[in-house]
UniProtKB/TrEMBL annotation:
This is M4 family peptidase. It comes from Streptomyces paludis. Belongs to the peptidase M4 family. The active site is at residues 146, 237. Residues 27-49 are annotated as: Disordered. It comes from the Bacteria.
Length: 336
């Protein structure tokens, strides 16, 4: 017997106890989310191939520890599920390609592999187990980030170099943050950082700071709070800084804020204050700009124009939101 939409109970490392969509198949349950396009979660078993679908005799999954191989799978399945639901509820989108068909995810890729990636060819997500195989890369912001590379690939197709590369990365950080807030999971308190739970550098610090990107300084480079003529020469994970900062300012506004108990200080380029329009509206502006106006070669000036067009469509050219979009770009040194 093969019943359709099932809810299993899992315990993830980062998300705690959650419901995940599963499928009953004969004597076992499979980690296949039939209610969301058939997303399957696989165990690569520390190799580089897909491996086998996760199964369970009793529809309970993982125990929150990394010694249990299903724990990372629970977080990955939950991340895919929250990303699917976020796209649906915020944007009316039916999966990454808007065709109702899910991607799939594989966990336990490689050995001590401290990264995760989206692959357009398999239309799939891959997660490593992190440093010492102790911190799988399966937190919500990373899941949302990586799957949103899939969204960019089927929409604007932003080229992964120069300024468009930074906008590609920023799109993933922006939507990954949106997924984290959407899930509002009590164990993974929503924030404006990327990668605060996975510790891939072993420093205990986040990978990226949307409110203050230049705090991300590693041995390979430094991110930017504001656009400069040198932005295009940076790695996309650093040239994303001004766009991430734009999104934070458009959402929350400038100055000091406490959000979910976390303090942020977000300096603007020329000190001019920016009033936020709220994250949900900022997400709508970015999504519309990405899916309707940006192209493979969009640069920062083009992103400003694209988001202003999106704000005009959504709220009108004399709206406060339109003005806020212009002000938030000025605050990261992207002017008319
Ligand atoms: N985790 C990285 C990213 O999505 C993977 C990569 O750079 N290919 O940006
Ligand atoms: Zn990325
Ligand atoms: Ca985060």
């Amino acid at each position: 017997t093969f019943d359709m939409v099932h809810a299993g109970v899992g315990v993830g490392k980062y998300n705690g106890r959650v419901e995940i969509g599963t499928t009953h198949n004969g004597r076992t349950f499979e980690m296949t989310d039939t209610g969301r396009g058939g997303h399957g979660t696989y165990d690569s078993n520390n190799t580089s191939v897909r491996g086998a679908l996760m199964t369970s005799p009793d529809d309970t999954w993982g125990d929150g520890t990394v010694t249990n191989r299903q724990t990372a799978a629970v977080d990955a399945a939950y991340g895919a599920q929250q990303t699917w639901d976020f796209y649906r509820d915020h944007f009316g989108r039916n999966g990454i390609a808007n065709d109702g068909v899910a991607a799939y995810s594989r966990v336990h890729h490689g050995d001590g592999y401290a990264n995760a990636f989206w692959d357009d060819y398999c239309f799939c997500m891959t997660y490593g187990d992190g440093i010492g195989n102790a911190k799988p890369l399966t937190s919500l912001d990373i899941a949302g980030h990586e799957m949103s590379h899939g969204l960019t690939s089927v929409t604007a197709k932003l080229k992964y170099s120069g300024e468009s590369g930074g906008l590609n990365e920023a799109t993933s950080d922006i939507l990954g943050t949106g997924v984290e807030f959407y899930a509002n999971n009590p164990q993974d308190v929503p924030d404006y950082f990327i990668g605060e739970l996975i510790d891939v550098r072993g420093t205990g610090k986040p990978l990226r700071y949307l409110a203050h990107p230049s705090k991300d300084a590693s041995d390979v480079g430094t991110s930017q709070d504001h656009w400069t003529s040198g932005t295009r020469k940076l790695d996309p994970h650093f040239s994303s800084g001004p766009a991430n900062h734009f999104f934070y300012l458009l959402s929350e506004g400038s100055g000091r804020k406490t959000i979910n108990g976390i303090d942020y200080d977000s300096p603007t380029f020329d000190g001019t204050p920016v009033a936020g329009i709220g994250q949900r509206e900022a997400l709508r502006v970015w999504y519309r700009a990405l899916t309707l106006y940006m192209t493979s070669t969009t640069d920062y000036a083009g992103a400003r124009a694209a988001t202003l067009s999106a704000a005009t469509d959504l709220y009108g050219a004399s709206s406060q939101a339109y003005e806020a979009v212009g002000n938030a770009w000025a605050a990261v040194n992207v002017g008319a």
